[in-house]
Amino acid sequence: MNQLRLLFFSIIVTLLLYSANPGGVGGVQLWLRADKGVDSSPVSIWRDQSSNGWDAKQDDSTYQPTWVQNIANFNPALYFTDHFLDVAYHKELNGENLTVFTVVLSDGGSGYRSPWTTRDDPPTRNTTAGHILYLERGGKYSYWTGMLTSIWKQLDTSIAPSGNYEILTTKSSTHTANSSIDKAVYYQGAVIGTKNNVAFSPNSLRPFRVGKGATEDLPQYPNGRYPWHGYITETIVYDEALDDIDRNRVESYLALKYGITLKQPQDYRSCSSTIVWSASTNSDYGYDIAGLSFDTGVACSELDQRVSKSINKDAIITMATSSDFSSLNSTTRPPFSATSGSFLIWSNDDGSSSWERSGAPRGGKILDRKWKVQKTKEQNSVSLQVDVDDSDFDIDNFNGKLYFVHGTDLSKAKPLAMIDDGNGKWHIDDIAFEDGELFSFVIDIPDLYINKSSCVVSDPVHNTTQPKRIPGAVIRYAIEVNNTGSAKADDVVVEDNLSDYFDESTIKAPRIALEQCNCSNPGNTTENGSNGSSDGENPVKIDFATIEANSTKCGYFEVELK
């Protein structure tokens, strides 16, 4: 019997040790996430991903929210209007020490609107209790707590909904005085309001409700009041006041998952608390932060983001593990990495949408906006797509091709031709970034292709009649340079180092033709440019000078075989 008890105890301990935790922060009491624990829409049950198994439920189909796929940085969300889900009462969800994270998007409604509450305000007792996060009538976020009187203690903020996904965090902690708490509200990871030494009374009866702001049973409001209007992707509850590092770990997990830029300066951390995006290292690149990530170790957050784009309106970069830039983030996509704790995070310098000559490679024009990546651990190459016609960041018009450049010095980087996907979108595959690299986009780049051919002009035996490649034969080489780019190429010099099979002293200086090569009949030619070689010089240098866009030049020279 004792052995059975020990085995049972070991199983429980193992399950607790190996259960996932948001941001790797243990002690989570409730974890509702739209990408896991939902089976169908409308949603009757939202399964808790903490080890507690405190599911949120709604039996009445009238009040069941909708499960919407691929709506929040390629992840799903639940959509609420007059809907709600209840988690049965547990004291761990209602105490003085409480940290609640929620990711929401408000898209309408009026009056008081609440994404979650633990409140109890029965008119028969005329006492307030519990916690509420409100979007008030005035359109600003506010954190209310009860205090055993008819009065609610409000912590008002100046923040209104942005029209995009937001991380809202509330924290309460026991003050030194009895039955009193200190309160704080955080928006995108930054504190936006505090209030200390506030009298508090916990809810001791009502459920934790997602999607509405009232839980008490009233005849005139049998299904609650103050409904949230919009999306909710995750709700996470701890029965403790998390410190700043642990709070940042959870908010980093949420930010990377949903493409949210934390208010700067703030670091992003892995579930092991490693800084994977440093605010100080990237101080000039604190805009539109997004990333691919694989952070799924023991007791970790199960973060496996294989496609991502910042949700900010002027964000134009999407990266993915394949050239699929539209479908849901899921394990059906190629993996980002096989190593947990792998991150590729990019951000930009908030540069403009104009094209600049300064700093551009090969005489082209480079986009004024530059991006920087921070890479952690080994990972697979990625695909990247840019939207040059984004309505909030419409890049200045250009003709021809678009090129991608990456490296520590973009002026020396090799421009890589991108693929036109149509509708203003271009992409490139198989990019392997190094940590700290910059990247941007280039236009007006000459694109040169070189083709070398040869023919026998004469030989000592046959002269010019069907000459052969025998000792003493004169060989003519034709080197064709084709510029298929959208800009001219200046100072083009091609060098050909001849082998010992040739008699260097017989080299005739190259000549240039302004047309495609014809080895047997060069046609009209001009002298080699000033930077080219003369008779008898090896290596042979052909100075083409300038080759205009979409044009061709050919260089010819002759030499005898030994």
Oligomer: single chain
Report the uncertain regions: 4-17
Mean pLDDT across the residues is 92
Strand portion, in percent?
Answer: 35-45%
Can you walk through the features of this model?
It is a single chain. The protein is mostly beta strands and 562 residues long. The chain has 3 domains: 2-244, Jelly Rolls (Sandwich), CATH 2.60.120; 274-443; 448-561, Immunoglobulin-like (Sandwich). The chain is built from 2 helices and 39 strands. Strand 10 and strand 11 (152-156) form a beta hairpin. It is elongated and about 120 Å long.
Structure summary:
The protein contains two helices and 39 strands. The protein is mainly β and about 550 residues long. A hairpin with a 5-residue loop joins strand 10 (about 140-145) and strand 11.
List keywords for this structure.
elongated; 2 helices; mainly beta; nine-stranded antiparallel sheet; eight-stranded antiparallel sheet; 562 residues; Immunoglobulin-like; Jelly Rolls
Fold topology:
Elements: H1 2-18, E1 28-33, E2 45-46, E3 56-57, E4 66-72, E5 75-80, E6 85-87, E7 98-106, E8 113-117, E9 131-135, E10 141-146, E11 152-156, E12 166-174, E13 180-187, E14 190-199, E15 208-210, E16 230-238, H2 244-258, E17 268-269, E18 275-277, E19 287-295, E20 303-305, E21 307-309, E22 317-320, E23 342-348, E24 355-356, E25 365-367, E26 371-376, E27 382-387, E28 403-407, E29 416-417, E30 419-422, E31 425-431, E32 438-443, E33 448-458, E34 474-483, E35 489-496, E36 502-513, E37 526-527, E38 540-547, E39 551-561
Antiparallel strand pairs: 1-16, 2-3, 3-6, 4-5, 5-16, 6-15, 7-12, 7-16, 8-9, 8-15, 9-10, 10-11, 12-13, 13-14, 17-18, 19-20, 19-23, 21-22, 22-27, 23-26, 24-25, 25-32, 26-32, 27-31, 28-29, 28-32, 30-31, 33-34, 34-39, 35-38, 36-37, 36-39
